[in-house]
Automatic annotation (TrEMBL):
InterPro entries: c-di-AMP_regulator, YbbR
Native source organism of the sequence: Prevotella scopos JCM 17725
PANTHER family according to UniProt: CDAA REGULATORY PROTEIN CDAR
Protein name per Swiss-Prot or TrEMBL: YbbR-like protein
Transmembrane segments: 21-42
Keywords: Membrane, Transmembrane, Transmembrane helix
Record-linked Pfam families: YbbR
Length: 336
């Protein structure tokens, strides 16, 4: 019984195949393949242009020479030829690198230039005789160098850094905090700071560490070209301190007394910074070290007002939004 069913199934499947692959279908399939072949031959026989790239490097650079400009790592060029040759180049993709000998192209002082014709002369032997280079795209085929002249330059952050709500950026550390910059004397004299690539960092509350690239200079090279950056956010708190009022620009024969003699100064500071600020050993109250509130005698001479304005002249590092609780005080000028 099982054998009979198997034979029936095989017979049904065979009849199905015969209905599909009948003579008309096979003829149609043959001409379809033939026409596709003719189309492919005609297409490949047309003339096309395609862009290719080829590795590019410099050799024989002396040990005492530092290349201070960035040469392109590839040369991009456009080739015109029949479609089958273009297809071969795309499929083969085995162009040998262009190798430039430093000794042949430097001026012996600080610059070098590689003519485009010399680049093409290294590309053509790798192409078919029928191929033509129609364009070599603009690239960095000129270079600068020096004989090891350099100086150490500090690294600084460039960009916008905004920690989360009620936080501020307390500190930025770089590892290393400075880099060696190689360039000619004139270029080195103009470089005082190396900045990072522009950063845009927002809404973070924990220490953030990342590796960043340094901004490039024309005809100068930074070693290293990347540094580690650590950002330290801190919680903001509102604090205050009593600060004595000083008089400035006073004549030697006069004394200015203010009422009150001290003023409350409000400010915002990070929690970590607050812990490091000087305090009274017994009372633990904040000391006004670094704060300076003044009255300018010259302002009094001009205004002749009954009250004198007070100013915040100095405040410690790390505090912000510093403001006196009152803006004017009573005063008295006495003769010595």
């Amino acid at each position: 019984m099982k054998t009979s069913k198997s034979l029936h199934t095989f017979s049904t499947f065979r009849n199905f195949l015969l209905r599909i692959f009948n003579k008309e279908f096979l003829v149609f399939l043959f001409f379809l393949v033939l026409s596709g072949g003719f189309w492919l031959i005609m297409t490949l026989n047309e003339t096309y242009e395609r862009e290719f790239s080829i590795p590019f490097r410099m050799t024989d650079v002396p040990r005492n020479v530092v290349i201070t400009s960035d040469l392109d790592s590839v040369v991009r060029f456009t080739v015109r030829d029949k479609g089958y040759m273009i297809a071969y180049y795309e499929l083969d993709n085995t162009f040998r690198p262009i190798v430039i000998d430093y000794r042949l192209y430097n001026d012996g002082q600080s610059k070098g230039n590689i003519p485009v014709n010399d680049i093409q002369r290294q590309i053509y032997p790798q192409l078919s005789k029928s191929s033509k280079i129609t364009m070599v795209k603009n690239g960095k085929f000129s270079f600068s160098f020096n004989f090891g002249r350099h100086k150490k330059v500090p690294v600084r952050l460039l960009g916008t850094v905004s920690p989360g709500d009620n936080y501020y950026l307390a500190r930025v550390d770089f590892i290393p905090d400075s880099v060696q910059v190689y360039a000619t004397r004139n270029v080195l004299d103009s470089i005082q700071t190396v900045y990072t690539e522009r950063q845009q960092l927002t809404n973070f509350t924990d220490v953030k560490e990342l590796t960043v690239d340094l901004r490039k200079f024309t005809n100068a090279k930074c070693i290293p070209s990347r540094v580690k950056m650590k950002l330290y956010p801190d919680v903001l708190t509102e604090e205050s301190v009593e600060v004595p009022i000083e008089a400035i620009n006073m004549p030697n024969d006069k004394v200015l007394r203010t009422f009150p003699s001290k003023v409350k100064v409000n400010f915002v500071v990070g929690a970590n910074r607050m812990r490091s600020m000087p305090k009274n050993a017994e009372t633990k109250e904040l000391l006004p070290v670094g704060f300076r509130v003044v009255v300018n005698y010259e302002d009094l001479q001009k205004s002749h007002s009954e009250k004198c304005p007070i100013y915040i002249l100095n405040s410690p590092n790390g505090v912000r939004n510093v403001r006196p609780a009152i803006n004017t005080v009573d005063y008295l000028i006495e003769q010595r």
